Amino acid sequence: MARVAVVTGGTRGIGAAVAKALKAEGYIVAANYAGNDEAAAAFSKETGIPSYKWDVSDFDACAEGIAKVEAAHGPVDVLVNNAGITRDSMFHKMTKDQWDAVIGTNLTSLFNMTRPVWEGMRARKFGRVICISSVNGQKGQLGQVNYSASKAGDLGFVKALAQEGARAGITVNAVCPGYIATDMVKAVDPAVIEKNILPHIPVGRLGEPEEIARAVVFLASDHAGFITGSTLSANGGQYMA
Ligand code: CAA
Q: CB 3.0-4.6 Å disulfide test: which of 10, 125, 207, 210 passes with 15?
């Protein structure tokens, strides 16, 4: 029977590529999104993948959202915690709102989304939890103290939870993308990309969302059953952890 996968932030950018790649592999996919109704409607129309709106930083909304997805499609076998935001600012100018928004969406969301599916995965003795962290959680990034802290936190979450899931047939892994050609990276001043970022990427280009999606599909598969607690870097050689 086809496995059920939920992808947060799954209607744009890396998440959309992941959702499409999982569907192409035969998964039943549900794509979560938080804000952009127009993009979500276009995504669902193009792909046939249903989109569900809720805020991953809100625990109750996640429990309700997962319940809705499970009622429609069955128990969640694969959870891809992809949703993420930036609120870049030098630390001396960073506001508490910028800090809270990024920690809520990028880190607290992992608790909010994984907790409601965890007991079911344990009972069924199978699960795949894949968290999209970032190169900037591994190396730290000027202008992103909030984002780097949240993404480094994601790695701690993965390493601890992987130990708890191992005996129950659940793997928990992280993928750390580098700079990928999505709206998030396109929002950075092109001069900053040209001067401060591209020169540090040995392959000399931004990555493509599909290049991250392939890594996620592999980690979700039965072939990856012995891989847990790992961090898979996909960053064009920018940082070798
Ligand atoms: N690396 C090194 N130096 C950088 C830099 C970078 N990525 N970004 C900016 N700088 C330098 C600037 O060149 C500038 O130096 P000078 O004073 O010598 O010119 C100094 O830092 C201050 O920068 P700004 O003048 O731009 O300061 P600002 O207050 O106007 O803007 C900022 C600050 C919003 C953080 C802006 O610099 C910026 O957007 N930087 C990019 C941060 C970044 O890499 N974000 C990644 C977003 S994509 C993402 O997060 C996805 C992922 O997972 C990889």
A: 10
